[in-house]
Every structure is written in structure tokens, then in C-alpha cells.
Specification:
This protein is of the alpha+beta class. The protein has a single domain, classed as Jelly Rolls (Sandwich), CATH 2.60.120. The strands form 2 sheets. Strands 6-5-8-3-2-1-9 form a 7-stranded mixed beta sheet. The longest helix has 14 residues.
């Protein structure tokens, strides 16, 4: 495991011990939103996602969130946030109380892998399988419902503060 991933895991543990457990990912007044379009075999699918573009936001992910809108979730981009080269990553759901799908996105904007229905509250590692430049986190099972598959092209626009 890379040193960066070990550090990130340590940060996740540290953040997991902080707070009341009922807080949201970010203050809604400060949340950046993007419209993400995924070109599937069945046609384009659109999601309205919060953006995690800082190390702290990316480490926090969807921790403590139990109410994710059907077409909502989180776009972790750019990854890594410091402008480094895309890298292979591992995620977990230790403090995420609901199942989620992780969609790992290559630097060319195509989907490398989808980890569907990740078990809530688990420390099991969920690997990207190859270097990625962004990750989408949405409700568990939503990828299959929308017909999203590896190889589909992902694009986004409209990053703004609300």
C-alpha cells in the first residue's frame, strides 16, 4: 500500500473520531455543485453532485450521511487534490451508514470500475484497480438502476458555490 494511502487512512480514522456523528459532509452554503453527465449505452444520465475538491472534503466523503438524494452524491475531483498524478486508491465506508456505489474515473474521463453497494460502516478496502483522476459516490445500487457501466464517458460542468 502506498504511503499516501496509509496517511489517508489515518486521516479517515482521525476524522471518524471527531464530531457528533450526525453532521453533514459540508455546510450547504459552502457546497460546490456540479452537473455530471454519464454517457451510457441507454443514453445520457445526469447527476447533481456535491464537489469534494480539498483534501479534508475528500477524506470526509459521505461520512455520516444517511439521506443522499436519488440523483445526488459526491464528486471527488480532482484526485488527488494537490494536483499530483492520478493514482490507484482504496476507499472504505467506516462512517458511512448507508450502502453506496463508488465509480472510479480514469484521467481520460471513462469509468475504470464500479464498486456497487459497498457495505455501510465497513473498514474493508474498496480498490480503484488502476490510477484514477476522480471518484463518484452515489446511493448503493444507483449505478445499476441508471445503466452505468465501466467504459462509459463521464463529464461535468457548473462547479459553483451555492
Amino acid at each position: 500500500m502506498k504511503v499516501k494511502l496509509a496517511i489517508a487512512a489515518g486521516l479517515l480514522l482521525a476524522l471518524g473520531g471527531c464530531g457528533s456523528g450526525g453532521e453533514n459532509v459540508a455546510n450547504e452554503a459552502e457546497t460546490a455543485l456540479v452537473t455530471v453527465t454519464i454517457a451510457t449505452a441507454e443514453g445520457p444520465r445526469t447527476l447533481k453532485l456535491e464537489v469534494a475538491d480539498s483534501e479534508a472534503e475528500q477524506t470526509r466523503g459521505l461520512m455520516y450521511r444517511s439521506n443522499i438524494p436519488p440523483d445526488g452524491g459526491l464528486l471527488v475531483a480532482p484526485y488527488p487534490p494537490n494536483g499530483g498524478a492520478p493514482e490507484e486508491v482504496n476507499f472504505w465506508t467506516k462512517n458511512v451508514p448507508v450502502p453506496i456505489d463508488f465509480i472510479f474515473i480514469r484521467p481520460d474521463g471513462t469509468i475504470a470500475r464500479i464498486a456497487e453497494n459497498a457495505l455501510p460502516l465497513s473498514e474493508a478496502r474498496i480498490p480503484s484497480g488502476e490510477p484514477v483522476a476522480a471518484i463518484i459516490e452515489i446511493n448503493g445500487g444507483r449505478s445499476a438502476e441508471l445503466g452505468i457501466s465501466p467504459g462509459d464517458a463521464v463529464s461535468w460542468r457548473g462547479q459553483k458555490k451555492q
